[in-house]
């Protein structure tokens, strides 16, 4: 696996019924800003067609 790429952050996000899309857990904390998350959340919190599928970004 000599690709030279490293994992910099792992996070779990979900769609909360009253708060909307949110990052629930993140390591390291505050690695992904709210502004960045707002721009990519549509690709991360998926529609039913992609639920329960492995997605790598």
TrEMBL record:
Pfam families: NPR2
GO cellular component entries: GATOR1 complex; vacuolar membrane
GO biological process, one term: negative regulation of TORC1 signaling
Top-rank taxon, per record: Eukaryota
Alphabetized GO MF terms: GTPase activator activity
InterPro entries with a match to the protein in the record: NPR2-like (IPR009348)
PANTHER family reported in the protein's UniProt record: GATOR COMPLEX PROTEIN NPRL2 (PTHR12991:SF10), NITROGEN PERMEASE REGULATOR 2/TUMOR SUPPRESSOR CANDIDATE 4 (PTHR12991)
Family: Belongs to the NPR2 family.
Name this polypeptide is given: NPRL2 isoform 13
Organism this protein belongs to: Pongo abelii
């Amino acid at each position: 696996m000599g690709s030279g790429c490293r994992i910099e952050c792992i996070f779990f996000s979900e769609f909360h019924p009253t708060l909307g899309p949110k990052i629930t857990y993140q390591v390291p904390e505050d690695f992904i800003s709210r502004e960045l998350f707002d721009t990519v959340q549509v690709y991360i919190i998926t529609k039913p067609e992609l639920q329960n599928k492995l997605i790598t970004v």
